[in-house]
Design goal:
Number of helices: 3
Strand order of the largest sheet: 1-2
Helix content: 25-40%
CATH architecture: Orthogonal Bundle
Structural class: alpha+beta
Length: 68
């Protein structure tokens, strides 16, 4: 499977995907690039910024209508 396919399959489960999860599961270092590619294909993926102390990171969710 490609990284893009892995990311899409995970997002279709309805769970939020973070860079840490992508790195741990598939070794994806540039999750934002894979999300951008999926958006270019027409998928609606929401981005939420999460703060953890002084650290901030993105969390990605696939819109409800796109999970089918």
């Amino acid at each position: 499977m490609s990284q893009r396919t892995d990311v899409l399959a995970y997002l279709k489960t309805g769970r939020a995907l973070t860079p840490r999860v992508a790195l741990d599961r598939w070794g994806i270092m540039r999750l934002a690039a894979r999300v951008k590619e999926l958006r270019y294909q027409g998928l609606k993926i929401d981005t939420h910024l999460v703060s953890f102390g002084r650290k901030r990171y993105a969390s990605y969710l696939l819109c409800n209508a796109c999970r089918s």
